[in-house]
Amino acid sequence: GSVDGTYTISVNAVDKDGGANVFSSTFLYDTLSPSVIATNPAANDVFYEGISQATVQFDDGDGSGVDMEQTEVSLQGPNGAVQVDKSDNGKDTITLGFSKLTDSGDYTIEISPRDRAGNAGYPVQIKFSYVLKPPAIVSISLTNRDYVSSLDSIEAVLEDRSGIGLDLSETGSSIVVTDPNGVELQADQTSNDVDTITWHPVNALATDGTDDGEYTVRVTPVDTVGVDGQSRQLTLIYDTQPPEVISANPVDINADVTHVGQQLIAVEAQIDDEGPAGIEIEDQEIFLQGADETRIDGVQTDDGDDTVIWSLASPLPKDGTADGLYTLVVIATDQAG
């Protein structure tokens, strides 16, 4: 390239009669091949979201210029050649357009530059990586070991972490519910066409206690190329039967009216829940009402298991001044509400 540059050939043609004509022609002498000065992606780049194009920029200095037609640029992926649409700006940049990458792994931009003088540069390889992040679960409309008394729907919000898109169809991302016997419940699944799927049972669960029990919910996110994200499995307790007061003291729960002759210091009630949810003893409520429905002052305690106690602030007197009709009120609540 030391003598590269513009040269001129001049010819002075003269015939025998003395006629003369001067001819000159200029040409560019170019022995240097063009070089690659920039690429996008750059060498050793790592992408976590799909890209849809690659660009290569050349420089030919003061030479003849890059031959865009003869310069070869291609893209190789983990599974072979990637189909591309090649375009250029007519000067120094070639662009490869392609569908968003869907295969995780290493990619190579292969470049064979050539200028208009026919100089071919050394082949260049630009390697970059695409790491396909699987989709993820953002949230589910219940938590593990949730206690519910109705089950009309379950909603899951998903995240597309690769830019490929979520498969929200019934054959893609899914919510699967199995009953206490391990049988999958028939359901319809809908979506908002963005990031959320919703499960609806085809047949409503019974509310008479026959369907009560422990159910398993499994949510799996899937993207549009079939990559599964990490599933999440939850357990819910379906309980439609309310807890019951099985005994009280000094009240007979099977009698319309209990006659109490001894001085009343405290009242208590034992609570049981036949359903699978069970009770939290601190969530139960007990108190004593007078005939005018006024609450008799007292303090609630419990035995830490299944019995709640209302201890009167002052025992009812035995002189007849407090005689009358009283009501023991117990509000029993299980963990399913």
SSE inventory with pairings:
Blueprint: E1 5-14, E2 20-29, E3 35-40, E4 46-47, E5 53-59, E6 72-77, E7 80-81, E8 85-88, E9 93-97, E10 105-112, E11 124-130, E12 136-140, E13 146-148, E14 154-159, E15 174-178, E16 187-191, E17 196-201, E18 213-220, E19 232-238, E20 244-249, E21 266-272, E22 285-289, E23 298-302, E24 307-312, E25 327-331
Parallel strand pairs: 4-11, 13-19
Antiparallel strand pairs: 1-2, 3-5, 5-9, 6-7, 6-10, 8-9, 10-11, 12-14, 14-17, 15-18, 16-17, 18-19, 20-21, 21-24, 22-25, 23-24
What can you see in these coordinates?
With 337 residues, this protein is mostly beta strands. The protein contains no helices and 25 strands. The protein has strands at 5-14, 20-29, 35-40, 46-47, 53-59, 72-77, 80-81, 85-88, 93-97, 105-112, 124-130, 136-140, 146-148, 154-159, 174-178, 187-191, 196-201, 213-220, 232-238, 244-249, 266-272, 285-289, 298-302, 307-312, 327-331. The strands form seven sheets. Strands 4-11-10-6-7 form a five-stranded mixed beta sheet, with no helix packed on it. A four-stranded antiparallel beta sheet has the order 3-5-9-8, with no helix packed on it. The chain is rod-shaped, with a radius of gyration of 42 Å. The mean pLDDT is 93.
